[in-house]
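Open question from group meeting: does this chain pack into something compact, or does most of it stay loose? Before anyone orders reagents, we agreed to write out a predicted structure and look at it together. Recording both the input and the output here so the notebook holds the full record.
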Amino acid sequence: MGILRVFSLTLARIATFRLHQLALLLAAALAVIAFYYLGSEKQNFSSTTKRIKETQTSHNSNRNDADFSADTRSAHHEETRAGKQQTYHALMMFTKINSSRTMQSKFEVAMRSMAKYGRFQEDEMLVLHYVSDGGSKELAMSMLPELLRDATFQYEVRTCTL
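Structure tokens returned:
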């Protein structure tokens, strides 16, 4: 008796739908069918997942085969022996920050984190490139000395105004 009641209530609800609601419901059902069956190109979630895992495995195995650290170290030592300073560059878009307190606080967190956790050798320097608008450039130049005060590495700030 319970199943018949649920079935009759469901039919009663469907009967109260208007024609455009039924058309939208039918269109949604057809879209789902089209997405899963016509757009799948004879693949299902299992075969796609398997393919993704195989791709990741091949990429990871290729990474493990090559050891780039020896090449990097030897090039680094050659440059320091010649007296050159190794520089690392970071590019940051810094626009419309002067009008957003939320973005200012995120910038503060990022710069304090970089100053606290950034690790460079004595012969290495970080060059921070900021692309900014006029108001944001002034704000950055006033904030950066305080935010990078505790940095244990050499850095240089370069700005470019839009």
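Observations to bring back to the group:
The mean pLDDT is 75.
DSSP finds six helices and three strands in the chain.
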